[in-house]
Structures are given as C-alpha cells and as structure tokens.
Amino acid sequence: MVGPLRVTRSVEIPEKELRWRFSRSSGPGGQSVNTADSRVQLGLDLTTTTALGPTQRTRALQRLADRLVDGVLTVTAQEERSQLRNRE
Q: Is the pLDDT reported for residue 80 higher than 90?
C-alpha cells in the first residue's frame, strides 16, 4: 500500500502508523499456501494514532476494548491464497 488508508471521507490513517505482518496461512488451500506467507495482519495503535480526534479515540477504545491488545487493533485476512488479495 502506498499512502494513507482512507477509512471515511474525514478519517485517513497515515501509512507510517500501520503495521503490516505476514505469515503462513493455516488450513486447506493447496501446496503453495503452505509455503507462501499469504496471511496478512494489519495493526493500528489506537492510543497514539493521529487519524482520530480525542473524542473518536475514546469512543474507539471503549467500543473495541475486548478486541485490543495494549491498545492495538489487529485485523487478519487469510481467506485468499494470494498475499496481494489478502492485503486488498
């Protein structure tokens, strides 16, 4: 990805705040899936992001509290065989 991640018309997450991680996908899918790092995890530290104002940050931290680890929201995609498709 190049540039910020647009979430809404008024919210853009700067690229430097996003943490990408790639690993092997689990489960069925053929031989190539077991040797390629096709699973994608994208993390965002909600406690320090500049993409949200104070009110939005507080609301996000409260609503997502059970999904956060040390204030970081992580989204995982592994349904596709291709890392590129999972990144999209």
A: no
Residues forming a β-bridge with 32: none
Query: Which of 5, 24, 1, 9 has its CA nearest to residue 73?
Result: 5
53-68 burial by CB neighbour count: b if 16+ within 10 A, else e? eeeebeebeeeeeeeb
Provide the pLDDT for residue 51.
95
The set of long-range contacts for 62-68, using a CB threshold of 8 Å and a minimum separation of 24, is none
pLDDT by residue (tens digit) across 3-50? 888 989 989 999 999 999 888 766 655 555 455 677 889 999 999 999
DSSP per position, 20-78: EEEEPPPSSS-HHHHHS--EEEEEEETTT-SSS-HHHHHHHHHHTGGG-BTTEEEEEE-
Cα–Cα distance between 23 and 5 in angstroms, integer?
22
